[in-house]
Every structure is written in C-alpha cells, then in structure tokens.
Here is the input.
Amino acid sequence: MIYVYQIILLLTLLKSIVLVRKFSLSSQNYLFVYLLITFLIELSSWIIILIKKDWSCQYTAYCVFCIVFFWFYYARSFQKKLRKKVHLTSVLITVGFLFLSFFSKEDLGSIAIIVLPIFYIMFSLFWFYQKVALPSKSKITNDPYFWISTGLLLWSCFFIFRVIPRDFFNIEDKPFLELLREFLYAINCIMYLLFFKALIEYETISKNLKK
Here is the structure.
C-alpha cells in the first residue's frame, strides 16, 4: 500500500506542477509548496531507511511546516471576524501544548505529531462552519477548499486513532499496530486523491477567469 500512496502523491505533485506552468503558483493557493515539501520528506525518509540511520527530526520540522502552511492557506478563505477567532484559537492551542511540553516526558517530536491533526481538524471545521453560515450560490463541491478540508478531516480523525495508542499496541498487539499502519497508507491515498480533485477545481476556476 505504501507504493500506491507514493505514486498517488507523485501524480498529485505532477498535476500541481502542470497548473503552476499553465497559470501561476497563486492559482492553486500555493498548494504546490505543500505537495513538494511532502514529497521531499517522503523521499528523504526513504533515503534515511536505506542508509540505516535513525533520524526523525525531519518529521518534527515537517509538522511545524504543515501547521504554518495550512494556517496561512485557510486564513485567505476566512472572513475577518472568523479569521481572528482562528488565529486566537491557534495561539491558545500552541501555547497550551508548549506549556504541556515542559511537564511532559514526551519529546517535542511526539507532541508535534499529536498537535498536527488537532490543527487540521480545527481549520477544517472552521471552514465548514463558515460555509454553512455564509452559503454561496455555487455548489460546495466546486470549491477546492471543500476537497482539501474533507481530506484533512478524514486523515486527522484516523491519524489520532493510530498515533495516540501506538505505545500500548506496540506492547500488546503489534500485528494490529501494523494493520493500522497499512490503513493509514490507504487513508493517505484517499486524502491525496481528494487533493488531486481540489487541483482540478483550481484549474477550472483559473480557466474561467481567463475567459
């Protein structure tokens, strides 16, 4: 399943590159940057495994990057009042987990992995709330944010279930932990297929603007 995931990620990145060349980087709200960094992280992880090193700092940096990227990604879509609420909530979550890290035995990397899906869920739910509170005439499925938010929400809910009890399952039920890992690759596939759909919607919007 991991190879299927990597192929889908690569195809999504290639689609993003095509859109950058046809239109501009901003035409897809800079999603290309996220996809490129994600692909490079996956590539570096594969190289680290090949050279048999036990490095994980790249994942901590990647979690921070993802939080910052989607913070700005969603900020562009929120109304001014809601944007302030999102920024305030984000700051409170960040401060809370930084405070927790001083008293926790977990390292910063482990905490970052838990914080990431919480931010994803928050961004997605705020977007869905705004969409319901301020409905538009166009179909919600024509909005690239719908596909991105759905993908992030799906991934985050499963990832929390996968990562929080991992130490328990690593001791009590390793086969089940391996099964969860394979399921996570399947969820990754679905998420990036949804991202691919979002890129198609970005392409449609860009074409309509050129008419």
